[in-house]
Write a structure and sequence with these properties.
It comes from Vibrio ruber (strain DSM 16370 / JCM 11486 / BCRC 17186 / CECT 7878 / LMG 23124 / VR1). This is DUF2927 domain-containing protein. With 262 residues, this protein is an alpha/beta fold. It has a single domain, classed as Collagenase (Catalytic Domain). Helices cover 42% and strands 16% of the residues. The protein contains 10 helices and 6 strands, in the order E-H-H-E-H-E-E-H-E-E-H-H-H-H-H-H. A 6-stranded mixed sheet has the order 1-5-6-4-2-3, with helices on both faces. Helix 2 crosses helix 8. The radius of gyration is 18 Å and the shape is globular.
Amino acid sequence: MRWRLLYGLMMTIMFFSHTVVAALPTWERPAFIENAFFHVALEYEFTSTTAPRLAKWSHPIRVWFRHDVGHQALHEEMARLHLAHLAQLTHLPITVVARRADANFIWYFTRQSEWQKIIRTELGEKALNNIYGSVCMFGVKLDPDSHEIRRATVIIPVDQARSHGKLLGCIIEESTQALGLFNDSEQAYPSIFNDKTPDDFLSPLDIILLKLLYEPTLTSGMSPSVLQPLLQQLLLQYQQQGKLKQALYQSRHAPIVEQFGR
């Protein structure tokens, strides 16, 4: 089977009435959320496309961890806490398996001296063109017909991530992006997908984007023109049901936040 490979990375960049809408935080406005969704879910870092399509998982995710460095229990605890939160938000079955052969989501905790070799092996030679200034990386393989995500890889060089104060950020951002929110964009704020956001944890906007992505009415392969009316309908429902406001609580009380704090 042919695969389409997409990859992304964390960069070290330092740096409806009108009355009701005006009173809302920017991230809570439906039009802002819709725009952010299109920029984050329908565009790809380092890969251009003239026919963007939605991509998501439709099968259970089975994660296998490869540890090349110490503090294995701590690193895996962080990852498992975040994976549990992702499963809760998306309703995807996400489990950890003991054998690589049983996994469709490979997660490396490695060292900087090894990560280029791992990237070359797992993501291909071309992925090495985009590592300048990066801290960690993810890649996914898509079914070319359905556009469903079939496999994913997360690669975190722990020493490099720690030196930038980004270990938690790498764990959260790369695994979240590997679910289908591939692109970093300044159109999303506050968000882990915006390098100007100071917080490494999922924001309320991120939670809404994840929930939208895994709504059953949105399916892999959908084009922007098909998605737009469905998104608008969902956002109206979210607003009426209080889901937009609930996202703030879910962000503040994420398992990894309660364990490791902001």
